[in-house]
Design goal:
alpha+beta; five-stranded mixed beta sheet; about 25% helix
Length: about 210
Amino acid sequence: MHVDHLVFAAGPNGLKAEAERLGELLGAEFKDGGFHPRFGTRNHILPLADDRYLEVVEVLEHPAADKALFGQAVRARTEMGGGWLGWVVSVDDLAPYEKRLDRSAVEGSRHFPDGRLLEWKQIGIKGLMADPQLPYFLKWESEHSVLPAALNGDIDVVGMDIAGSRPRIEDWMGIELGDEFDGVKLNFTAPNGQPGIDVVTFDTPNKGIVRI
């Protein structure tokens, strides 16, 4: 299991403005990640260290956005003002999660602006929508060289503050979590309202430690 990427939903000012704001905080520039035709969303991405990336996403006025759970989740978070939508764990095999959740993984794809096609399968968005502290699971179908994290940036994700329950996430993931998971320190706090990611801590070469 690998903490693959973090998802931040754009606020009312839109995708470009949100990516510029976060980029200024982190001392880095996001790249246009393209359009998700199955989900009715589009994103900007920032490659991070350790084969991870940060995704800022917005929902579009597109028929797929009303049908796809991911589009619905992004729209709901944006309507709340934007912010952390969730975290994503990549795995080598989705079959155990399909069996446990009693549903099939959903195919996803998007074209980068340069035409390269990125493909994957994912499962767990319904769980994320019901309980935003939970990660969803992803299996990449494309070669590593095409993946957003392949550019391998120099910003580290060093910690996440999660409003929620460690046992709840352990049950969902099917593993025991230590104080650190895949190199990321986990700090659990009691939810003061909706559970989910409260703060992500980054170690950046240009801005030092940054908490968002």
